[in-house]
Predict the 3D structure of the following.
Amino acid sequence: MSEKSTLSMDTDPRRPSRAVWPRVGAALLLLGTLGGAACTAGGAVEEESLGEASLLGSYHLTSTYTGTVGDTRGWLIEWEVPEFVNESEAWGVVGQWYYNLESGIYHTPDGWFVYYFGDDNGVTGNHASCNTQWGSGGTCGGSLSGLQPGDQVVFKYEWCTSARVADVNGSLLCLYVDMKDGAGWQFLAQDTRTTVEMYAHDIEHFRDVGPQYAEPQISCDAPIKMLRQQLKTTSGTWQNMSGSSTWSFYNEPPYVYQNKNLSASPSTWESCLQCSSLPTWQSGQVYTPGTLVTQGGQFWQAKQQIWWSHPDCPPSNPASWCPAEWARLGSCN
């Protein structure tokens, strides 16, 4: 069963708003402007009817810290931006929750953007490049947008004071981002700590909203990369996170973890798309331009109209006389 996130679509269909309540295994994705709330009791979801329709959105990969979150005083996580085979149409998110504050990178057909969500005590004074389309956060522009595959982004959460001073006894939670562009840490948001959570959603997609929100197809040649995590101890010391027992992993097709190196300090891993997520190339078929298939452990896209796929012309090993019908887009797992 997929882990679900609650989203609320605002009036712009190219800007799906998000409102995730952690600890919810299955929640509502609501079409309409953000307004109202959802709550949980004993693992059940109490629904408040909003918008026009209810649909499900999904976290298909999650990595949850198995230690005592209350014994941490901060969390740092670094991602490498992946390549989406269908980047011109894909919608997807790579991010994390620490307590009640979410952040990460958000992909639309317009590109990649830093985002945050869940700042419930007001967004005044937060990063000026970030909009507030979701009420308690939004996507960010300027230097916090336009990310390219291979770029690296670091998010840092710290217990802090109202003056944004790191303090292991502070009553608030401060969130920062480092774009690794020389600008250093940039303040994103600050909030009171409420729900106790510490997990990453290595991929979130919105495919159930409708066909206009295409599910990301992630090349295993340029996968999502989790490059490092650190936690801050009660003494204020940052330490690398590593070890097979440090996280609990959840994965569901069509995505899969690969190249886990949990013994390293810090640990690293990757994630991408399974080959079985797309149809396998077959002979004797009609393929229209742009059709995606898998064959020989690779993604392929039809470059032209193929009225009949010849058995001697598979994408990965065509005979010398075959026309150049297919373009390789990357590998799959």
Observations:
- The chain has two domains: 59-272, 274-333.
